[in-house]
């Protein structure tokens, strides 16, 4: 990984930063391997508690995609399409 996660150190607590990084990491895992739908959706739910604004979510996820090539939007969309107990596997 030769990029940085988009985080807001000025406004987020250490715990919130860890939780946001966990969400980004889950998105990475979906592209580089496989991730449980439930784990990804729990991480996304926590991410949305920290970043409730849709515009801020788009900005942060857009930055993340630009840096990494991994789409938060497409990954969460794919997870929502799956049944409980399934795993998310994304293609680049």
Automatic annotation (TrEMBL):
Cross-referenced Pfam families: UPF0223 (PF05256)
Coiled-coil positions: none
Matches recorded under InterPro entries: BH2638-like_sf, UPF0223
Name used for this protein in its record: UPF0223 protein YktA
Gene: yktA
């Amino acid at each position: 990984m030769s990029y940085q996660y988009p985080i807001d150190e000025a406004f987020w607590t250490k715990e919130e930063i860890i939780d946001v990084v966990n969400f980004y990491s889950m998105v990475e895992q979906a592209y580089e391997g496989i991730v449980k739908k439930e784990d990804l959706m729990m991480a996304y739910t926590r991410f949305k508690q920290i970043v409730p604004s849709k515009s801020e979510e788009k900005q942060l996820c857009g930055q993340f995609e630009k840096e990494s090539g991994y789409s938060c939007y497409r990954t969460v969309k794919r997870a929502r399409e799956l049944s409980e107990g399934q795993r998310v596997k994304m293609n680049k």
